[in-house]
Amino acid sequence: MNYYAGIQGNQYRIKPGKLDPGSSEGILPVSLDEETSYEVSAYTNFTWKPFEPLTLSGGLRFTNFTFVGPYTAATFNESTGEITNVTEFDQGEKVKSYNALEPRLGLNLKLGQNTSLKASYARLNQYLQNIYNATTPLPTSRWKTSNANIAPQTSDSYSIGLYRNILNNAVELGIETYYRNSENNLTYKPGADFFLEEFVERDLVQAKGKAYGVEFSLTKPKGKINGWVNYTWARSFLKTESERLADRVNNNEWYPSDFDRPHVFNSTINLEGSKYNTLSFNFTAQTGRPYTTANGYFDLEGIDVPIFLERNNVRLKTYHRLDLSWKVNYSKKLNRRWAGDWTFTIYNVYARKNQYNIFYTQRSGDANANIFRGSPLGSYELTIMNSPIFSLTYNFVFD
């Protein structure tokens, strides 16, 4: 049996953001408090072979997370969401602390010379979460520390996979399926005011999550032509369980999360023409991410206001892109003091205009009425890159 143990400590510092209006007199400056926290963990892991075809591995990790001041903490009324009390914490003073255990277990069973079966289980606790929003023209996100109002995200993950080497071990095939359930996922409440909000937890709700999928892989690690191909079918959903109607997302029904991509395909092909030249092609394609579109609209004093009844109810177009790199490693000097290579890269070779987001604006008049089918709101695509990006890099290492 082999085993190891250790301890680890981390400090996290989050700067949620600030707004400097400059010379504008109509906008007030905003500067959110910096958040400081510490995570200390102790862990151990073992590997054991009870008999030749079977290998077992397991581990246990204990974590302590402490959120400290300076910080201004608020207490909220559960029914109305209004602030009922505010507490000031000094520098280094403990605001909130969490302790947790994280077990993990793995199994590797050889089924003959070229086939193996692998299975695993792991529990994780996440004390820092990224809160995503995809209803604005530019998707915004914000990191948030666990505190008295926000519990850590916890998840249990299960996986099992079958792997086989073929063609005299020249090619590796694999198929793996997984399932993960989670608690306390952060998401915005309907109609939340999330932009530089001081007490952002007032606009958050913690939801249940589930994710599952199947991954197929093919790898050729050696030879003048080598690389890998990977396809994944995967789903990811969230579900709130709020009793208060105003806090429910999708009326407490399951809905696709921001990470829901049913189809993902990635591949990398390397062509090693000689010891001096290597061409690499990287292709990626995936289902467009979900975003929220209005289910209707109503007129409010001459302004058409959208109505959002469902979250992440439509998707962007399929994302795909091809990248190319050419690496040249050559030197005429026999007694050189360093070894170097040039790498020429083309990002987005065929100039794909991938959608970054879709946003809506109020229309005026009858312009483009045939395009928008009479809707008072016009929808527009936002793209970040619409052309290839070229780069040239020289890397060297001293002998």
TrEMBL record:
* Stored InterPro entries: Beta-barrel_TonB, Beta-barrel_TonB_sf, TonB-dep_rcpt-like
Bilayer topology reads: Multi-pass membrane protein
Provide the TonB-dependent receptor-like beta-barrel domain boundaries.
Answer: 9-349
Q: Where is this chain's protein located in or outside the cell?
A: Cell outer membrane
Keyword Transit peptide appears in the UniProt entry: no
Q: Which UniProt keywords apply?
A: Cell outer membrane, Membrane, Receptor, Signal, TonB box, Transmembrane, Transmembrane beta strand, Transport
Specify the superkingdom: Bacteria
* Descriptive protein name: TonB-dependent receptor
Q: Which organism is it from?
A: Leeuwenhoekiella parthenopeia
